[in-house]
Design goal:
Blueprint lengths: L1 E7 L4 H10 L5 E8 L5 H8 L4 E3 L2 H4 L2 H10 L4 E4 L8 H6 L4 E5 L13 H10 L4 E8 L9 E8 L6 H28 L7
Parallel strand pairs: 1-2, 1-4, 2-3, 4-5
Antiparallel strand pairs: 5-6, 6-7
Length: 197
């Protein structure tokens, strides 16, 4: 069994979608949802779906003596960032080499880096007059949004689209594709047998 932790900071629609996607999977289990915000809607969604939740402050998250034993306690093998706004500390990257992935709400390498999250991304896409946007799933590296790209999915934009319209179109892609990309990445990384699902 591959135990997965989902790290979240906000609404948790992707987190909820991932939890539901892996319910009943015989080889991949969402074992923990970790948030840096106790009042994040994602926390309540995870609890309602029966997934253990832990909340850590920024200081606790950046403390290896606090975070690593927590990962060990839940026997975490793989980490998915789904709207998580803190930068992953180097000690976690060392502990989980090529076992942490992130969803970014734009077509990297465009519109990535520090400060590029949520509505900031969609506003930047609009300001640049882009004809398409999309989502990118990538390995997490020391460079924010700079890790190797695993998958990208795009959607057409109209000149009249507002940042809110852009966000809505991109979110459709997340709901459709993100859980499957998580699954495919874990299957490949851990050489799982799909017949056992």
């Amino acid at each position: 069994m591959v135990n997965v932790a989902v790290f979240v900071s906000g609404g948790g629609t992707n987190c909820e979608n991932i939890i539901k996607y892996f319910q009943g999977n015989g080889q991949i289990r969402i074992a923990l949802v970790l948030s840096n915000k106790a009042d994040a809607p994602a926390v309540g969604k995870a609890r309602r779906l029966g997934v253990p939740v832990e909340v850590l402050s920024r200081a606790e998250f950046n403390d290896g003596a606090r975070l690593l034993p927590l990962m060990d306690a839940y026997d975490i093998d793989f980490i998915v960032l789904a709207g998580f706004l803190l930068v992953v500390p180097d000690f976690l990257l060392v502990e989980y080499p090529r076992r942490i992935i992130n969803l970014h709400p734009a077509l990297l390498p465009k519109f990535g880096g520090i400060g590029m999250y949520g509505h900031h991304v969609h506003e930047a896409v609009k300001a640049a007059g882009e004809s398409e946007t999309g989502m990118t799933v990538h390995w997490v590296s020391p460079e924010v949004d700079g890790g190797e790209i695993i998958a990208r999915f795009s959607t057409h934009l109209d000149p009249s689209d507002t940042p809110e319209d852009i966000a809505a179109k991109e979110h459709v892609l997340e709901m459709e594709h993100f859980p499957k990309v998580v699954e495919d990445t874990i299957v490949e990384r851990f050489k799982l047998d799909r017949k056992a699902f």
